């Protein structure tokens, strides 16, 4: 991957709806060259998918909770079972296996506290092998991006 690929990826992270013509002007390359570079990055798995970022407020999912999960035990079977179950929960937009006091951090998007309580009572507590949970509620969003710098 060269410097042009990194610039191209930066532009795509900012706005994936830019046309190859717009990108070609930004990169001083032909439209065909930009198209071929994008296809190569897709084939190599550098670009894994394209998504739309949604406005949580307009979709009534603006109550964001970071739920820390501790498992009862750390056997391979318990971890696999938990992970297979948690990915099915539509309220969970992100799940990370982490080190420290807790084993997992979930990012949960719901309408309000009442919907979060319903999620906890009917879905999350039904998952196997959870020892304890700790919830933190988002007060305000300071930075939200999916982009990162390529050096």
Automatic annotation (TrEMBL):
Can you name this protein? Lrp/AsnC family transcriptional regulator
Q: What is the lineage of its organism?
A: Bacteria, Pseudomonadati, Bacteroidota, Flavobacteriia, Flavobacteriales
Which keywords appear in this protein's UniProt record, sorted alphabetically?
DNA-binding, Transcription, Transcription regulation
Database matches in CDD domains: HTH_ARSR
State the organism named in the record: Flavobacterium proteolyticum
The superkingdom of the source organism is Bacteria
Q: Which residues form the HTH asnC-type domain?
A: 1-62
Residues of the signal sequence? Answer: none
Query: Which InterPro entries did the record assign?
Result: ArsR-like_HTH, AsnC-type_HTH_dom, Dimeric_a/b-barrel, Tscrpt_reg_AsnC-like, Tscrpt_reg_AsnC/Lrp_C, Tscrpt_reg_HTH_AsnC-type_CS, WH-like_DNA-bd_sf, WH_DNA-bd_sf
**Gene3D superfamilies hit by this protein:** 3.30.70.920, Winged helix-like DNA-binding domain superfamily/Winged helix DNA-binding domain
